[in-house]
Amino acid sequence: MTAEDSIAAMSSDSAAGSSAKVPEGVAGAPNEAALLALMERTGYSMVQENGQRKYGGPPPGWEGPHPQRGCEVFVGKIPRDVYEDELVPVFEAVGRIYELRLMMDFDGKNRGYAFVMYCHKHEAKRAVRELNNYEIRPGRLLGVCCSVDNCRLFIGGIPKMKKREEILEEIAKVTEGVLDVIVYASAADKMKN
User: What is the domain extent for residue 112?
Assistant: First the structure.
């Protein structure tokens, strides 16, 4: 092995070591340096999972329960090349962000929408008031509105002979917190709910 080979091996080892510290979803992003700078500035973590990149949740130094319902806003009409490094400064200007979830495609671009959860309800209301129609880029306005909690789960293909109570009983065996079961007839198969 020559001296040049040793230097090349050492620099590739150190590059591999430094990239191991970069969170999945941030490593290789077109704006990786800007995302790392944001994380360094705020102390928030970032991770990509299930088609979304999560920033925060909880914020550094957070003590207490998860924010209550009504603390989250939906952000739509996001240009596909806008990421957390541009969104966070806009949204933190109206309140403390608990968590920001940016929906992502497999190609690394955002899907045009995100959810921002604030620590308090009044901050979410202020975000809707002040940031709806905010011009994030020339001629590109964000849509910001209160997020609606969707706490329903659809389960299809249940045999028609099963009664509502039986379905509720079966679901209760594998999870908790189910309040009700609504049974609809299948439009495609009259033998199933």
Answer: 18-146
